[in-house]
């Protein structure tokens, strides 16, 4: 027997009460039980997304919310800018290129954040851009982009240009405010900071964006958000929804409200700071600078051999699963997820295991060193 | 406290062992744990779909499998025939009309089955039909269409015309054999006879259909089946899948194999025959003739007042949820689902409750009458 710890940047561990809620019994999706459930969720989920408008719940993976945002908010033949700073920006570009758009890519070195001044200059040279798309946290690099500054640049460029933000690995783990950040559409998935199994996707948008959805005639059916908005007014969904996950969502939103949103965000930042201090004490190089380090996932570099040793040892001897790099970062980084149902104590455990693994691997004594740094971060703030 | 019985034609009750499996703990979708899971599912799910080819698992509602079949198998500007015999045929037509196809509708009276001779004549008058689409069971009317005869007609018309069958409310409850029935693509969802919560959709197809998927250039991303087939070869999925539902699916497929597929189908037919005999003993008119009665759902007619009384009393006093009619059958029929994790004893319970409800409502003695007929069906076969 081995206690398992899933520390990937999604899926993430499911709290016990959420598992229980998801198993409480199936209900008809056209029953009053279900409309009561949706009615209970509606206000609570707005708080987490930082919006006063409705948040659409799709029964599908996070990727579907990227496609939904794209095909509902960009009309055929429009010019759009996709910021690509990692694997999920690249996926967003692949989605955009699937449909009849003129796609302009703003490339950012993987591991770096968008430089606002440079991006402003890039954008100013383009005409008639109707949509700009960016990750908030690029999961593949653990960078949190300066979304509020990018939003301001987009609106300064043209107040009618829509700004779509991918919050799949950040919503629920870091603060959003759609109005303050000039975000027209914020999307996310269930399996990251929202502590649910994968299978739900979310689309929050303001009234300006919603109008564009209505007028957009690009062919789509399952991802046609007009149907979801109409249904949401009646506390229901246009197609049979993933009922058990939505039951779980209600429990998750209650847990978040109980801890307090600000406390949830504080906890994520504390885990990030503890982990980063600990990794540095292990002489591991962080991929991302402090200013742009995501509160939800952390990436570090080392030799390919050492990384693969760390990952295997964590999995085989400690039951801890962490993630490797994606695409051209494969073999160059490892990523530790610290979002959702995860706590400072979990950071202590993974650092403790890594101290031992590296002490043996490098024949150098790291015992207590990473943990001490993490403790300093934790206790200094108390 | 009240024991709940969900007897709608989807979602359906979840077995306890499936709930437990879904709560056993989240696993990374890029881990060997997950590829092992997919590898375990692959052969078992083929048996249930009656195919030797791969079955794609989508993380989304059943409706998405209708759209996936359509946009992957019908190319732009092609002529397609949609058989519409109820609400889900109408949905399939709505999907078809969303995309650039020439859509021909073959209308069937709601509650009737396709008349093969008549359909053959209809089809023979059309040129260059590339795809024919039909429900197997039309959930909204409880009709099971003569799919094998329709499949033969389609292939006699043109051996290259693809036949797509919607098995959302029948796969797992009634036998399919893609080759024998000339079905090129069979789709389904998780929340009906497959005893899972909603949130998974399935697409089975033969090699001919798969080739068309590859050559079809209609824009699609999340529902582009090429990506799923490529991933399936590596026992994985292109996007983060609904892991907990897939864990549950593995348990469901084991349960089905343990009971034996033929026994599962027998059980469904027995529940149908018991229920139909009982409803007739209650002087309720069945919507569908014996020859086309689905083994998974049964519809009966009565006055709007009586139907609404039956439905409310079942819900309020017995905890039993059944479904009303959809679209123009609203207020004209009720539907009782009897698929998946449901047994002859459940039929006895609902008939027993209805005997009492109707005895009081009609001031006429029905005690024991429906149950007796159901018992005769059950025990005669033993």
From TrEMBL, chains A, B:
The keyword Transferase applies. Substrate binds at residue 335. One of its GO terms (biological process) is glycine biosynthetic process, by transamination of glyoxylate. PROSITE patterns: AA_TRANSFER_CLASS_5. Keywords: Aminotransferase, Pyridoxal phosphate, Transferase. PANTHER family: ALANINE--GLYOXYLATE AMINOTRANSFERASE, AMINOTRANSFERASE CLASS V. This is Aspartate aminotransferase. It comes from Lacicoccus qingdaonensis.
């Amino acid at each position: 027997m081995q206690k398992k710890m899933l520390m990937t940047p999604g899926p993430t561990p499911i709290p016990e009460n959420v598992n229980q809620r998801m198993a409480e019994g199936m209900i008809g999706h056209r029953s009053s039980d279900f409309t009561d459930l949706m009615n209970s969720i509606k206000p609570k989920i707005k708080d987490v997304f930082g919006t006063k408008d409705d948040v659409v719940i799709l029964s599908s993976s996070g990727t579907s919310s990227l496609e939904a945002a794209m095909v509902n908010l960009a009309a055929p033949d429009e010019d759009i800018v996709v910021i690509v700073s990692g694997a999920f920006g690249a996926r967003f570009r692949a989605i955009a290129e699937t449909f009849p758009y003129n796609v302009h890519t703003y490339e950012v070195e993987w591991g770096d954040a968008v430089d606002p001044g440079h991006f402003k200059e890039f954008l100013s040279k383009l005409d008639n851009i109707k949509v700009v798309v960016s990750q908030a946290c690029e999961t593949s690099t653990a960078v949190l982009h300066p979304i509020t500054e990018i939003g301001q640049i987009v609106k300064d460029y043209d107040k009618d240009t829509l700004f779509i933000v991918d919050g799949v690995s950040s919503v629920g783990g870091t603060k959003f405010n759609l109005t303050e950040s000039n975000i027209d559409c914020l999307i996310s998935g269930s399996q990251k900071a929202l502590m649910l199994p994968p299978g739900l996707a979310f689309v929050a948008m303001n009234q300006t964006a919603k109008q564009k959805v209505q007028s957009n005639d690009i062919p789509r059916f399952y991802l046609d958000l007009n149907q979801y908005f109409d249904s949401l007014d009646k506390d229901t969904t246009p197609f049979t929804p993933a009922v058990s996950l939505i039951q779980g969502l209600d429990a998750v939103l209650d847990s978040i409200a109980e801890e307090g949103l600000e406390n949830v965000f504080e906890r994520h930042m504390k885990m990030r700071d503890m982990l980063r201090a600990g990794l540095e004490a292990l002489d591991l190089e962080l991929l991302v600078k402090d200013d742009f380090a995501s509160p939800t996932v952390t990436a570090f570099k080392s030799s390919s051999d050492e990384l693969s040793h760390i990952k295997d040892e964590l999995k085989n001897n400690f039951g801890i699963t962490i993630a490797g790099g994606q695409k051209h970062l494969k073999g160059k980084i490892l990523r530790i997820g610290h979002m959702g149902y995860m706590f400072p104590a979990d950071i202590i455990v993974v650092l403790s295991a890594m101290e031992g693994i590296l002490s043996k691997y490098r024949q150098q004594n790291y015992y207590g060193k990473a943990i001490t740094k993490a403790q300093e971060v934790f206790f200094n703030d108390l």
